[in-house]
Amino acid sequence: MKNNLTLEFEKVYGNTPEYHFFCPGRVNLIGEHIDYNGGKVLPCAISLGTHLLVSKNNEGLFRFRSLNFEEKADIILANTYTKTGKDWFNYPLGVINYLSEKHKLQGLDFLFYGNLPTGSGLSSSASIEVLTAYAIDQIFSLGIDKLDIVKVAKRAENEFIGVNCGIMDQFAVAFGEKDKALELDCDTVEYTAVPFKLGDYVLAIVNTNKPRKLADSKYNERFTECRTALAELQKELKIQHLCDINSVELEAHLDLIKNFTIAKRAKHVVSENERVQQSIKALAADDLSTFGQLMFASHDSLKNLYEVTGVELDTVVDYCKKNPNVLGARMTGAGFGGCAIAIVKASKYDEFAEGLDKYYFEKIGYRANIFKSGAESGVRNI
C-alpha cells in the first residue's frame, strides 16, 4: 500500500512525499442515540481509514488531490478561507482555516486516499479532518495536543462544513487504541479505554449501501421527542438528562409521559444506557457472548422503540440472528441506512460474508459491502 501510494504521489506531483499519515474510521459498538441524552457511547477505531501523503512546497499554495475524487484545488495561502460548494477538499480546508487563526503555515502538497465508504456512517469526514490537523501539527511541530486536534476537526465539521455533529466521531478516530473501545462521555469528553479483544472472532462491518437520506431529519425529530419526554418527567423527578434514571424509575413515572410514541423513545434511551454499562462489564470479563446478546437487544430497541433502523439494516441483523457463527449484531450510527456490525467467528467469516451477500441481495435487490476489522489505533504516522 505504502509503495503504491508513493508512486501515485510521484505521478501527481513529480517528487517523493516527505510524510505519510493515516487516520481510521470508527464504529459505535453500542450506545446509540443516547449521547444527546446524557449517556455514554462506546466507539472504537477500525482498520479502514484515510491515508495522507504530504510534501512542502515553495509556491505558497495548498494543493489538494485525492485518488477517490476527481475534483482538485490549488488554494493560495491566506488568513481565512471560504467553503467552496460541496467539494471534498472543503474538509481539510476547514481544518486549515481554523489552524491558521493561531499558526502561520506554509505551502503543502496533499494527496488523500481512503477506503471508507462515503456516506456509510463510518466517519470518513472525521477521518479526513483529524488526519489533516494531525499532519499539519506533525509537519510544523506546532505542539497541538490531541484533544485540541479533535476540537479543531469538530469545529471544521460544525462551522465550516455546516454539519451539527457531536464530538464522538473525531474523538474516536483520534484516540482509538488497539484492542480497546472508548467509554466516552460526549459532554465532558472524559473517557476510559475498555478491553475489546475479539480472540477467535472478528468485527464484521456491513455497509447496506442504503443512502441515509432520512438520518438528519429524523435525528432532529428524535432529539425533540426526547426533550419532550425529559420535560414531562421533570415535573416529578430532579433530573438533567433522560439517562439520569434507570428502567425501574422510568416505569414508575411513565404515566407522566402522555404520548405513547414519546414514551417509547424514553424507554429506548434509558434501556440503551443500561446496555452500555452492562456491555462494559461483559467486555471487561472477556464475555463476548453476553456482549453479543446486548448488541441484538440494542438493535431490537432501535427498531421497535426508537424506530430508526429500516428494512436494509433489519435484513442484515435478521440474517445474523439465524447464523450460529454470529454472537451479536446491530445497526451502528444514526440509522435509516449506513452500516451494521456483527461479531463473527473468524474461521467462518468467509462463509458468513458469502451467505449474507446472497441473503441480502435476494431480500433487497442490490448488494451490501462486507469487510472485517478489529479495534485499531487512532491517527498516526506511517
TrEMBL record:
Domain called GHMP kinase N-terminal: residue spans: 90-176
Binding site for Mg(2+): S125, E157
Record-linked SUPFAM superfamilies: GHMP Kinase, C-terminal domain, Ribosomal protein S5 domain 2-like
Species, as recorded: Solitalea agri
A biological-process GO annotation: galactose metabolic process
Name of the protein this chain belongs to: Galactokinase
Positions marked as site (Transition state stabilizer): R26
Domain GHMP kinase C-terminal: 280-359
Subcellular location per the Swiss-Prot or TrEMBL entry: Cytoplasm
Highest taxon of source: Bacteria
Function: Catalyzes the transfer of the gamma-phosphate of ATP to D-galactose to form alpha-D-galactose-1-phosphate (Gal-1-P).
InterPro entries linked: Galactokinase, Galactokinase_bac, Galactokinase_CS, GalKase_N, GHMP_kinase_C_dom, GHMP_kinase_C_sf, GHMP_kinase_N_dom, GHMP_knse_ATP-bd_CS
One GO cellular component term noted in the UniProt record for this chain: cytosol
Protein family: Belongs to the GHMP kinase family. GalK subfamily.
Gene Ontology molecular function terms on file: ATP binding; galactokinase activity; magnesium ion binding
Associated pathway: Carbohydrate metabolism; galactose metabolism
